[in-house]
Amino acid sequence: MIGGIPLKELVENEIIERQQEGCEVPDYTERLKNADNDELLKIYDELDALEISENFPFNEPDNLEEILKESDGCDYKKIPESEGLFSKFYGAWLGRIVGCIMGKPFEKYPFGAGDGTLDGWQCIKLWQEGNGEKFPPEDYISVNSTAKEQFGWESGCPDSQKENITFAESDDDIRYLVLGLLINEKFGNNFTPNDVANMWHTYLTKNMVFTAEYIAMLNSYVCEIKDKKEQIEFCRKHHNPFREWIGAQIRVDHYGYYNAGDPLTAAKSAFNDAYFSHAKNGIYGAMFFAALIATAFTEKDIEKCIETALKVVPKKSRFYDDISFTIESAKQCKTAEELYEILWKKFRGFSCVHTNNNACVCVGALIMSKDDFVKAVSIAVGAGWDTDCNGATVGSVMGALLGTESIPDYLSAPLNDTLYSSVINFHPASIRECAERSYKLFMEKE
Q1: Per-residue b/e over 430-442, b at no fewer than 16 CB within 10 Å?
Q2: What's the rounded Cα separation, in Å, for the pair 242 and 397?
Q3: Residue 140 has what DSSP assignment?
Q4: Would you list the DSSP string of 328-368?
């Protein structure tokens, strides 16, 4: 066990990760059957030592300079118009929270990864059909559905179910937004991965973090390396098979807010945050969405925002390739279900919390939304996989793009302007006041 996670589970995920990174991985089936901890650690060391295959068609650097060198080059920079700007900050905060709460009840079996026969989105569709609600869902998720009796399913997170909502309940998607605000208030853009680590230790407990973040925090507790750069390398990679999962992608919205109109700077800040716990495509997802949100404050065309954000991602990466595929696919799709079919087929076997498949859901939802906040969040949540993360990310982008006026009262009013984040001084907090702090911070930048 490592921090409560079975070592065998880590090894099994590392096998998948190394395969996805382009390594030719030996068949460990027989060795894993009766492996004790010593044998599992030996296998892990062997996996760590594998080289990327010469036939692997992608080039995926971790270094910021190399990442930007391998990208198209993002020279976009605009000063946001002052008229209606606060509405965009408020819309981004409120949009992220609304999208998160809408997706939370489906963040469990079988709605994320499916039940082995049905894909996650198909399970969500059956739940919605069982309560007479629309699919993809355009409202918060009801606790009631005939799917309970028919399939034995239950929706999760009672405080985020339609019948019970009176506030925005605590969630990691929101904690990281709050933490991003605190990081920008303390450091501006001048922070390092080590600063991020210190902020986590100040404001988060280990039960507030998951997968890659959890491993990185555990590693930081036991790390005895004195060199700060080597410390971070140990924290983000040692026994961390989750380094390309979605965690970094959901942490970086505030860097887009703080750098509204400046996607390249937003992406650089996102890199410094992501680098504490992630690698390769896990980092690219963080950079991409920080840049996308920054651009949404100054552009009206969502496709232009996506095109601009993609310019901070290495062109020969899996992430770039997957997003490019999704852009073209979404433009051809007439329904959300068509998009779901395409993406679930493409990412069959991926973790439901991997960066790439969920990033593609977000991009597909944004393209198909036609500047409709509800439609965008609806498509993101209805896709399955990481439903609350995707609802939150798409809600943040659309809120920044369209302003708070785009979010209907039936979604905002039940929250009673109240956020619980589990972060000190933000438990509870006024959502509007959080947005006001972000807006003031941006306006006072030198």
Answers
A1: ebbebbebbbebb
A2: 25
A3: P
A4: HHHHH-SSHHHHHHHHHHHTTTS-TTBHHHHHHHHHHHHHH
Distance CA 106, CA 83 (A): 37
The per-residue DSSP string of 153-177 comes to -----GGGSTTT-SSB---HHHHHH
Whole-angstrom distance, CA of residue 366 vs CA of residue 433: 27
Q: What is the pLDDT of residues 232-276, one digit of tens each?
A: 999 999 999 999 999 999 999 999 999 999 999 999 999 999 999
Give the side-chain half-sphere CA count within 13 A for 313.
31
pTM of the model: 0.98
CA atoms of 297 and 293, how far apart (whole Å): 7
Which of 85, 131, 96 has the alpha carbon at shortest distance from 445?
Answer: 85
Query: Helix, strand, or coil here: 5?
Result: strand
Residue 320 identity? Y
DSSP string, 287-305: HHHHHHHHHHTT-S-HHHH
Convert the pLDDT of each residue in 316-356 to its tens digit. 999 999 999 999 999 999 999 999 999 999 999 999 999 99
Q: Answer for the pair 366, 376: CB distance below 8 angstroms, yes or no.
A: yes
Whether 184 contacts 190, CB under 8 Å: no
Closest C-alpha to 99, from 242, 302, 203, 250: 250
Rg of the chain (C-alpha set): 21
Query: CA 375, CA 380: separation in Å to the nearest integer?
Result: 9
Phi, psi of 271, deg, nearest 5:
-60, -45
Q: What is the pLDDT of residues 103-141, one digit of tens each?
A: 999 999 999 999 999 999 999 999 999 999 999 999 999
CA distances from 261 to 13, 136, 258, 353 (A): 38, 31, 9, 29
